[in-house]
Amino acid sequence: MRAAILAIGSELLGTTRLDTNSLRLTAVLERYGVELVGKSVIGDDEAAIAAELERRIATVDLMLVTGGLGPTADDVTRSATATALGREITVDEEVVAAIRQRFASLGRRMAEVNRRQAEVIAGAEILTNTHGTAPGMRLEEGTATIFLFPGVPHELEHLISVHLEPWLEAQTAASGTAERVERSLLKLACVSESDVEQRLAPAYERFGRDPIAVLASPGEIQIHLAARGSPAERRAKLEAMRRHIRELAGEAVFVEDRDDTLEAVVATLLDRDGATVSTAESCTGGLLAERLTRVPGSSGYFHGGVVAYSNEFKTRLLGISEELIATAGAVSEPVARAMAQGVRTRYGTDFGIGITGIAGPGGGTDAKPVGTVHIAVAGPDDDAIEHRRRRFPGDRQRVRWQTSQLALEMLRRILRARVPRSPEAGEKPTMAQTGAT
Amino acid sequence: MRAAILAIGSELLGTTRLDTNSLRLTAVLERYGVELVGKSVIGDDEAAIAAELERRIATVDLMLVTGGLGPTADDVTRSATATALGREITVDEEVVAAIRQRFASLGRRMAEVNRRQAEVIAGAEILTNTHGTAPGMRLEEGTATIFLFPGVPHELEHLISVHLEPWLEAQTAASGTAERVERSLLKLACVSESDVEQRLAPAYERFGRDPIAVLASPGEIQIHLAARGSPAERRAKLEAMRRHIRELAGEAVFVEDRDDTLEAVVATLLDRDGATVSTAESCTGGLLAERLTRVPGSSGYFHGGVVAYSNEFKTRLLGISEELIATAGAVSEPVARAMAQGVRTRYGTDFGIGITGIAGPGGGTDAKPVGTVHIAVAGPDDDAIEHRRRRFPGDRQRVRWQTSQLALEMLRRILRARVPRSPEAGEKPTMAQTGAT
Known about the structure:
The structure is a homodimer.
Chain A: E1 2-8, H1 21-31, E2 35-42, H2 46-57, E3 62-66, H3 77-85, E4 89-91, H4 93-105, E5 119-121, E6 125-127, E7 136-141, E8 144-149, H5 153-174, E9 181-189, H6 193-207, E10 212-217, E11 220-228, H7 231-249, E12 253-256, H8 262-273, E13 277-281, H9 287-292, E14 302-308, H10 311-318, H11 322-328, H12 333-347, E15 351-357, E16 372-378, E17 386-391, H13 396-417, H14 431-434
Parallel strand pairs in A: 1-2, 1-3, 3-8, 13-14, 13-15
Antiparallel strand pairs in A: 4-5, 6-7, 7-8, 9-11, 9-12, 10-11, 15-16, 16-17
Helix pairs in contact in A: 1-5, 2-3, 6-7, 8-13
C-alpha cells in the first residue's frame, strides 16, 4: 500500500510553523507497513487543494488529509475534496445535532457558522470526533481511500486511534501482515556517535544497516530498530537485535523500548533503593535540580539543592572553605568534591552531586577553557566520591545540558551497580559493598 | 512572483525529522514579497522527483529544491531535474578540480564517488559552495527559475545569502519593491490570548487583520506585524502599528523587534541597576534559577539559589520556622513571602524570589488544587514584598514553566518601574521611592 499526506492551512506556509501532524501519521503508516511516497503542504486555496488531491489519488492507495475542517470561510477542505471527486455536498442534520449537543454540553450555544462543519460529501463515511466539533470523513474513489482529518493535534490523535488504525488493521489483516514494521528503541547517555557506530559494527554485519538507525543529540544517542515479517518474526528479530546491541553497547544503554528520559530512569533507581539525593550546582545554574524534579513524585528522593553561583553561597551553604576556593580555584576537582560531600552531609541525603565549571561564553582561560566542568557524586560511603573532569564542546546551553546529563549518568551507574535493597535487609548496601566506586 | 519548495530525502519521510530548511527559505521569500503556494517532501526517488518538478514548474515562477546533491547513489536530484527538463548532464572538470581542492585543503583525498557532485545540467549556472562539496545550480525553463540547493542547513544558509538573495534582490528591483514584506515582533508575558485579542480590537480596526498575527504559547504571546510597500512605507507602517499596540497592550510588552527571552530582558534591567537577585524555589525545582543563569554573564546579578523541596531545606536554608509551615501550610502566601525575604536577607541580595506550589500530577486538594502556586518577590524595601497567587492549567511541566514566567515578569515590572540608577546617585532607589510596590 502506498500513501501520501496532505496538510492544509496557510499558517503552515509561514515562517514559524511546520506540519508536525505528519510525523504522527507517518508513525502509524510505518507500523502497518504502508509506504509513504510524499507529503505536501498547501494553503487554504480550494483550487490548489482540489488539483493536488486529483493528482495524488491517481497514484496512491491511501490519501491522508489534515486541516481545513473548521467552521470559517477559509476552511475549504470539504468543498475542495468534493470538487476533486466531482461529488455533491449536503448538510447532514444528524451531524448538526451532534455539534449542537457538543456545544450544549459545554454550556454554550452553537453559532450558525458551525453548520459548515456538518457538510458531508456524497458517499463519505462520517468519522465521529468526540474531542472536537469537526467530524472527519472517509471516502473511496477508484482504488484509493481518502481520509479527511481535523488539523488540531489532539483531535487528530483521537481520530487516528478510533478510525484510522482500525481501518489499517482490517486492510492489512486482509492482505497479510508480512509488510508490517515493528520498532524498538534503545537510548544511551554520554557516549559519542562515532564510538557507538564502532561498537555496532558487528550488529551491522549480522543484521544489515537498514534495520538499525542511530540518531545523535548532545549527550544522548538513540538506536532505532525496525523489523518486518509476521508478528512472531518481528518480535524474534527485534529481541535478537536488542540482545546483540546490549552486548555491544554494555551498560551505556540506559533504557530499552521506552522513550524514558535519563532523569526518569535515575528516579526509578532511587525509588527502588529508597535513596535520596541533593545537588550543589554552579555552572549548570539549577538545571540538574530542575531535571531531577521534572519527574512526578520527585519529592520522594529529591530533598533540595543549592545553586551556588557566588563563592559566598559556596562557603555559607555548603561549608566550603575560602582557602580551598582560593588555592584550588572555584572550578576544580577539590571544590566539586567538597560541594558534593557538603550538600550530602549538611542536608542529610544518601547522595550528593557537586558541579562546577565554565559554561561560557566568557570566563575561560588557557588552563581552564570554556566547557571545562568538574562533576562529583558523593555516596553513602564517605571514601567513595566519584569525580569526572570533562571539556564539553558547544555553546553555553549545550555545555550545561551535557554536564547535567553526565551527572545523571554517573549517579545512574552508581545506583545500577548497587544490589537492590531487599525488604528483609536491615541496611542499605553501601557503595563499597557493591564495589561501585 | 509565485514559488514552491521541494525538499528531497527519504529521511524526511520518516517519523523523526521534518523539513526545517523550508522555514529558512520561506523567511527569504516573505522578505521579497514572493508568494509561497506549496511545499512538498519526496524521497530519493528519481521518477517521483522528476514528475513533481515537471508539474510544479508549469505553475510557479520560482522552484526551490533542497537536498539530494550528495555523492552517493541515492542522491538523484541532479538526474531527476535533467530528466524533468529533458536536458543532458555532463561532469564539469572545473567543478571536479574545485571539489578536489576542497578535500586537499582539509588534508584529505577526494574519493572517486565525489565526481558525481560535479555533474552539471546543460544550461545551468553553477552556484559555488565554499561551505561544502556540492555546488548548487540555477536553471531557467520557460518562465520558471529553478534553484537546486544542498540540504545541509549551514550550506543552504550560505547559498541563500550568496546566490538566492542577490538574485531575488535583482528580480524585485526590476519589478519594483512594492510587494516586499517587512516584519516586526512584540512579545508579552503572562497575559491570555483572549485578553490580547480584545485589547488589539482597535488595532485590527485601524490596520486590518492581515498584518497582525497573534501566536500564543504558555505564559507568552507573540504579536507578529507585517508591512508591505516601499522601504519608507514599510517602516512607517510598522512603526505606527508598534506604537498603537504599545498603547493598547501597555506594560505587558516586554520586548520589541528582537526575539529576546523574558530572562534576557530581566537580566538587562538588573545589569542597568547593578542589582542582584537570589531565588528560593519549591515546585519549580530550580527552573527559575536555571532560566536566570541561561543568560551569559549572569554571575553579575545572580548570586545563587536554593531549591527547597523538603520542609527541612526550607527551615535550615531559608530560616522559615516550622511553626509557620505547620500553621499556614507549605503551599501558602506566608511561606512564599518568608522564602523570598529569607533568601534575600540571608544571602545579601537586592531581590529575593520565593516560589511554592503544587505542580502535580499528585498532591492537590480541594482547597489547593494542582496548579496552585504562590510567588513572592522581596525587594530592597522590606515592607514591599509583592505576592501573587495563581492556579495554572496544564501538566507538571506547564505549571512549572508558567510559574517561572510569572516570577520573572513580576521582577521585570518592579525593575521597570524603578528609576534607572544614575552614576552620580550615591544610593540605589528603593522600591518605595519609585512607587513600585
